[in-house]
Amino acid sequence: MSDRYQSFTSSPIGRLLVKNLGLPDPTALERYTAGDPLVRGTVALGGTGRLVDRLPGLLDGLGIATTTEVAAAADETAPQRFKGLVFDATGLTNSAELVALRDFFTPLLRRLESCPRVVVLGTPPEQLTGPARVAQRALEGFTRSLGKEIGRGGTVQLVYVAEGAEDAVTSTLGFLLSPKSAYVSGQVVRVGAHGATAAAQEVDWQRPLAGKVALVTGASRGIGEQIARVLHRDGATVVGVDVPQAASELQALMRELDGDWLTLDITGKDAPQRIAHHLSEKHGGVDVVVHNAGITRDKKLANMGEDRWDSVVAVNLTAPERITRELLEQGVVNANGRIVGVASIAGIAGNVGQTNYAASKAGVIGFVDSLADELGDGITINAVAPGFIVTQMTAAVPFATREVGQRLNAMAQGGLPVDVAETIAWYANPASTAVNGNVVRVCGQMMLGA
Prior knowledge:
Blueprint: H1 4-9, H2 12-21, E1 42-47, H3 55-60, E2 65-67, H4 70-73, E3 82-88, H5 99-108, E4 112-122, H6 130-149, E5 155-161, H7 170-176, E6 187-191, E7 213-217, H8 222-233, E8 237-242, H9 247-256, E9 260-263, H10 271-283, E10 286-291, H11 306-329, E11 333-342, H12 346-349, H13 355-371, E12 380-386, H14 392-395, H15 399-407, H16 417-428, E13 439-442
Parallel strand pairs: 1-2, 1-3, 3-4, 4-5, 5-6, 7-8, 7-10, 8-9, 10-11, 11-12, 12-13
């Protein structure tokens, strides 16, 4: 689905109007294609802290070229340019030392290639006290502001790495430095914050889910279809679930992906038991559970009938809770398994006419919070919160509303279903054991409410 405004800004008259009128100027985002290197270019490293000495080795294992010789490269006349910047800020212990951020980034920002990636590494403030806690909390304002400045399709993230989780950050760096994170910016990720600090497992970074089984609800179309495709690309056997009305589309997709399918209403009384039985009997368990199925029944609260409220909460929130509980109680989720919820920016910022939907999606975030510290055997739970994602559903939104929704973010464009899918694939990676209890917004860094 093409973005007509973006096509217009690429034309000669469009470029002229953008320049003279200060109109939004969306950059064509780079996205990952199977078989591509994670990073096409060099990543400059800097900072002082717990991770700086490990970073070259960790990134080399991902096939990412790095340099620490940034002092000479900072000369604006030097020829070298950078595809990414990583700064270890874990060594900053008071507010006066925050100037190190300016000293590192200011010269290098002018030397970035198109669609660059910037990552700042810190220590979770809640694990610190006094001036060190203050300095580490300051990193959030820095990265979110830089994300709105960087332009040219660039992204900026903050990764808080808990003590002892230094060697468990590889999958996160691979995701955030690559085109897989094209529409993720201004986010704060915590690695090891919930006690899981195991080093990254040895995985095939091209097919990290080889031999794994992944359940995806609402898999027949839109975002669910892309989730299924990306997890299949990464090696998983996908079990798609959707309502009986979508059976033909679901079966066609699963046949294409050499997957399996199950048609049912996830709100049905026996749905959790049927899903658990199917996964146990046909696949011997499940490694990745993605609760993607969701519906909207919009109406202002003053005019909202009981059926609109009940159906949205039942599909979006209660069903994932019931299914997860059944899978865990029956031991169907394998060790080092992954549970992923699909929330929404509406659950964070709210939307007019969506009190039911926003409540259900905020509930998904609560679902993650409630289970993050309870799961054992290396099982993790995380969520994605999509913003304006271009789908058949959003194509039906009135033109003016759709245009505002697409432009009101740091990238001045809507995201694609694959952007949500890539974020879920990062969570699903066996090397992401220390990534637990996170809610990452896939929204291009919305300007309001997030």
